[in-house]
Amino acid sequence: MAQALLSNYGAFREGHFSRQVTLESLKKMAERPLTGNPQMDANIRLAKELLRRPELVRALDRNMSTGASDGRLSRDDIMSVIGSDNPFKLKDDKQLIKEMLGHFQQLKGNGRGDSIKLDKLKEFAAQALTGNPFTDHLIQLAKEVMARSILQGRMDNVDEWQRDGKISRRELLKLLR
Length: 177
Description:
By secondary structure, this protein is mainly alpha-helical. It has twelve helices and four strands; from the N terminus they run H-H-E-H-H-H-E-H-H-H-E-H-H-H-E-H. Helix 9 crosses helix 10 (133-147). It is elongated, with a radius of gyration of 19 Å.
């Protein structure tokens, strides 16, 4: 679906002067009646199908380097989703936080303290996939978290103004509220 959207990107832009597809222009396309024109009808059906999959639309709207959503589905954002094989690419920030909590001890490692060091998370993210499903799950989770700079910043010192390079369980729980 993302590839079809990218292939017909111009048809989904709102107006002649708009350079990007917006959530609003996608909704307007989905609201159109079928026309009998095979190309236009395919675009209308695609818009309807995309709107039935909000997790995909959120992923297409997400800036892959920051994790921020802005209501615009740029070509780069769409290509990032198409080009990524990370299963966490469709997860929103809260879902990633829940995954982090579920694997907190493994991500923390055997070190002292009760927090995940961002350096440790970067080490996980830098690893190649191993073929071991559990280890690969952790690597892909770390890769996706490290790819979202805004989420990283939110996880690092929720209560404080200064970042310390650590993510505590308490901070993750607070972000879920």
